[in-house]
Structure formats: structure tokens, C-alpha cells
Amino acid sequence: QVKIWNLTTRQCIRTIQAHEGFVRGMCARFCGTSFFTVGDDKTVKQWKMESPEHGEEEEPIHTILGKTVYTGIDHHWKEAVFATCGQQVDIWDEQRTSPMCSLTWGFDSISSVKFNPIETYLLGSCASDRNIVLYDMRKSTPLKKVILNMRTNTLCWNPMEAFVFTAANEDYNLYTFDMRFLESPVTVHMDHVSAVLDVDYSPTGKEFVSASFDKSVRIFPVDKGHSREVYHTKRMQHVITVKWTSDNKYILCGSDEMNIRLWKANASEKLGVLAPREKAAMNYNQKLKEKFQYHPKIRRIAQHRHLPKSIFCQIKEQRIMREARRRKELNRRKHSKPGSVPIVSERKKHVVAVVK
Predict the structure, then answer these.
(1) Distance between CA atoms of 264 and 247, rounded to whole angstroms?
(2) What is the pTM for the complete model shown?
(3) Among 168, 169, 166, 191, which Cα is nearest to 179's?
(4) Which of 84, 102, 239, 326 could join 211 via S-S bond, C-beta 3.0 to 4.6 A?
(5) Is 2-264 assigned to CATH 3.55.50.30?
(6) Is 107 exposed, middle or buried (0-12, 13-18, 19+ CB in 10 A)?
(7) What percent of the chain has a predicted confidence (pLDDT) above 90?
(8) In the chain, which residues fall in CATH 2.130.10.10?
(9) Whole-angstrom Cα distance, residue 184 to residue 178?
């Protein structure tokens, strides 16, 4: 099923029996008049965004029957073109029932595909053989791929910087890459204590939100290695998917216990209409925080977050393990021939190879 919700009233306004079996992917058209879904029944369906008229049947506008199961879909940002992924990446024209071109590199299943919002002819995909592959629609061939130590679940392009994307990995980290220099990531974001399952950028491109198997949602600044905010509740289970709304105010997440949660992007922000004096006071307070941000006590208040006991204990355990690995490497270097144990930076440790 696909459900359409009204966020202001928190009501489900429409339920569509879309596919037989799981609905694996969904994306809206760039104009917002319709959306596409893919499922286990090997079909791609296009649906109207508006509810059907009284007495009208709930029918898809188009149905395309494919040859394989599709695991993800994404729409071009400016043209009537969309991409699906499964055993390969297929580029489709909305008016045709067969793909314009099929792109493949390797033989593993591809879990997600994303169009670049600025350089709209570029695509990125993640495969289960630990690859992140970049494609160019104009050349109809893959450009290059980067192989990491562990599998990447999904990636998201920065909406403000054309060549920057962030990948959510199984090794508890997120990696922000510049696609021109894939040899090492620009930043390694390390805070989660379990596999990161989804990532989405804010419309400003300065922050992104990540969802993890450790039952928490974190907000990271793009240029920082640690999160500025962590969201969790007692009842929330493994967070599967996360989205940042286009007005930069809210974050939506979907988790295993069948709930959709709506969070504020800035936890302390007051919602609703602000009086001019109230607004001025909040701006003044913000400037004070920025002015004294390096004072030890102010910094402690700003950075301190209460965490569930399980996450807190895992963070402590991982810190001990990381320290032990560092000590072991130092000892090995100390008792080996000079230069035989090279110093590898944290950024380069996780990249296995770049293939062009």
C-alpha cells in the first residue's frame, strides 16, 4: 500500500493498493502533479497526486511491466525522465514502455539510485558489492566507482554543491565525498553505533540527517565529523528512512514499529507566530551563544545530550576498541623497521579502491 498524509491535520487522506508484494521505492515528479512507485511485482506505476473524483476508480496513469524486481526509483529534476535500479540501472522516458538505456558495472543488486539536483545528467548508485558507482546520462556509460570496506546502503547529493554527496554505510559511519577526488572522503562522520540506513540533505545544503539501525536519528553539519543533534524515543525501533522537508523546518522518519514521526530540525525553535520582541530576543540569545561557544561550560551545555543506556554503553565500548587499535598500531610501528608500517589517515582507511 501507499498512503498519502496531510501533515497539518496528521490525517491519512488516501490509501492506494499499489502493488502485489512490497512497495520498494517511491518518488515524486519534479512538477509535483504525480508520483511513481516500484514494487516486488516487477512493475513501475505512475499515480496522480490529487485524489480521484467522486465515483472515479483509483487507477494508475501508466503501468510499465519490467523484467526484474526493482529496488529503487528516482526522478530527473527537470525532464520527463526517471531511473530505476535492481539488477542494473535503467533510464526511462515517461512516454515509453522500454528503457532508453541500461547501465551496469558488476553483477550485484543495486539498492538505490539518485539523480544529482544541480548537474542533472549525473546519477549515483549503491550496490551490495560495496560499490558506489557514478553514471553520466549523456555518455550512457558508468563514469567511475569507489569501493569501500563495507556496503553502502544509500547516498544523497548535496543540493547546493554540485559534486558533493554523502553515503550511509554499514560500518556505522557516513562519508562525504567530492566526486572529482574519490581517493579519500572529504569528511568521515562518526557517531552512530550501528549501520546507517538512510541519509537526506537539508535544502540549504549545510546539514544532513541520518537514520540508523541503532534506533536514533542524528543531524550532522556537512563539515563536522560529529552530530550536533540526536533524536530518539523509548518506543522508536530501527529507523529505516528519513526525509528533510523543503521548508527546512522539519524532519520526517519512518521506523520498524510502523510509525511516522515528525521532528523539528532545530529542537529548541519555537513554532508558530513570533512577536517582534520575541524574535529580537531569540536572535540576541543566538548571538550570545555564538560569541561564548568556546567557553568550557557553555560548550558543555551546548553539546550535552541524554542518550539511551544501550547507545551510551556502545559508544563507550567503541571508544575503548578504537583506543586499543590505535595503541596496537603505535606499538607495531615502534618495534618495526622504520617506514615498514605506514601512517594511514582515518579518511583513507575506509576506501579500498577507485576504478575509472
Answers:
(1) 11
(2) 0.92
(3) 166
(4) 239
(5) no
(6) exposed
(7) 86
(8) 2-264
(9) 9
